[in-house]
Write a structure and sequence with these properties.
Blueprint: H1 6-17, H2 36-40, H3 43-46
């Protein structure tokens, strides 16, 4: 997980809220698609959004 990515922010926030070390959290893939935050906030994917 690269620092500065949305998925890194999710893991950091969960660790802070649960007062846990990020490396001790269960795998993110047990709760969400771990690439979803990165894909959602990827600027190249924004051009594919339709309203």
């Amino acid at each position: 997980m690269a620092e500065g990515t949305p998925v890194h922010a999710v893991i950091t926030a969960v660790a802070e809220v649960t007062d846990s070390d990020p490396t001790e959290l269960p795998p993110l893939s047990k709760a969400i698609d771990p690439e979803a935050p990165n894909t959602f906030f990827d600027s190249s994917s924004l051009s594919q959004l339709r309203m």
